[in-house]
Amino acid sequence: MSTSSSRAIRILLIHDTQNEAEPVTNAIRNSGQAVRSHFIASLEELNKVIEEQTWDLMLAKLNTATIDATEAVAAIQRDGMDIPMIGLIEAYNDDIIASALDMGMADVVVESSLQHLAQAVKREVASLKARRDLRSQSVSLRETEKRCQLLLESSVDAISYVHEGMHIYANPNYMELFGYLDIEDLQCTPIMDLVTSSAVNELREALKGFKDGKLQHLNSIGLHADGSAFDIHMAFSAASYEGERCTQIIIRKQESSNEALEEKIREISSQDPITGLFNKSYFNEQLDKAYEQVLIQAKRQIVVHIGIANFADIKTTVGIAGTDLLLEQLAEQLRAKALPGGVFARYSDDMFAMIAPTSDLEAIQHYWQVVQKAIAEHLFEVDGKTLTVSLICGFAHMDEAGKAGNEALVQADQAYNSAVKQHKTQAYFDKSDIANLADNSILAKLEHALDHDKMRIQFQPIMSLRGDNREHYDILVRLQDKDGSEIVPDDFLPSIENSELSGKLDRWVVARSITALSEHHKRGHDTQLMIHLTAASIQDPTFLPWVNSQLRNSKLPGDGICFQITENVAHRYLKAAKAFSKGLGLLKCQLSVNQFGLAENGFALTQHLDISYARIHDNLVTELVAKGQASEELADLFAEIHKHDINSIVPKIEHSEILAALWELGVNYIQGYYLQAPLDDMDYSFDSDEDDDAT
Description:
By secondary structure, this protein is α/β, with parallel strands linked by helices. The chain contains 25 helices and 27 strands.
């Protein structure tokens, strides 16, 4: 589950009555969010509760007589509470919406648009959480800045902060180094005045290069206030001082005899000894700097994982020493084809990595296609042996939604592994793809799939053995796993039975099914869809009104839908099931009880529910197939089903041997792979099967 849905949100409700407000909170629960609501009956109560505890949201019906919405908004604003407010109206009205937004409402939603309301609530709660996090981090930042200021004052290094070429801060050692006694004098002095005239242009170019991400160090000649010159080493880094973005400069006196040595040490520390490319440590530093640029400039960059597909074969052929020689030659080829502005490094044995300062994925993929082709065609020579190298690339965007620069490299690594598995030369990490979901739980997979519309429904025909000319399809839902395989409901429904996701899943399936059925009816078909429901929906008083609106909008008759619940659910939630069955009758929809026949008091349900179909339990089908004929108990079960004027359905028919036995038992409908595997569309030819039976 996401963070937003793992904690109950606290909602203030202003409405006509608490019962009339209940569908609103149920809609939010069905979207996967736990809710704790409090109905406000008076302005005095509102003033009291907002002082006593923290609230996450206020939902206010704008034309209710309970509390004037204007006064409620004023009460929250007067107390300085950060509580997002959403207005509820009965019908869309531009003037009312504009007035409410001017008043301070975050949004205004038509109350019957429950999906819109759920999304608006999710958005406002997420925004509130971000604001609260920001306030908390701001407090932490101020404390950190205080500690940093103390460290700056006591630092042995000379440190200053420069903005647009002017000093905005310098620590005591910096002022002493350049001979200034008063910080005010230094603040009026450009950084260019602290180097000799011969070094000004070089410093100007260095600062420009730092802004472009190309340079972090400079050896120069400092100028003391008394006019004396001395060698200095300057290190640049991005910083913020009193809320102002600036450049931090750390200056150390440079002994000329050590200058070349220190430069060589810096170069060696950032290079891979075998290939001469940048090493892992340096690349990780550049990832952090690239991430800072992404946040500052709001421009995405691309990270690439480049791996050698046949590295194991190469090592077997030429050994470890020969592999190092090959990597040296490969690095030379890659260096010759380097992307301007990119940072390229050897990250591990057979892995290279690159940061491309662009968001143009297509251009970077094309660039690497050219490089991959050139490398594949190049013949490498090691100890008299000719070798070829195959490169595979994984791509990922580094963007402001990420938590760190290294996150993009991890994602590029996942894309690389995906390319290897799929025998491709390139792959991209798509954040909207369930295959890239970090959380491996069924709940996370399902929530991700529902949010990104990554599930699908299938249609399995149900065939009449008694001459019913109407088409019947069982609706089956499929969830795709990371490896591309499909997870069937039996594998994920038990995991979500007690979560709000079950109701959200039901609505997703019903909405997709009704849309498909509407299109099918327009083509002249008389079809009924049988849709499975979880316990959450039969307990949800807003579910059937929502179904009614879906049917009306699609201009479908109620009997085009048959809802299915299991015998176990019907017994466990009998009171809710009874009310649900009555509601179905008002909508002209039908009810099927599935997994029927194992409970001792199964037929007691007929006293409370109007049951149109009974689908017998899978275990009874297995027993029937194993024996080749029905037991006396099973025959009695079917006789009792038909006695109550209920249509029997036998699922999981895999072959024709038992059809004769089913016919003798008076079975009404059959379903299974013998007839047809689940279909992506309702295109099964029922007429052709009838012709075959007649033959």
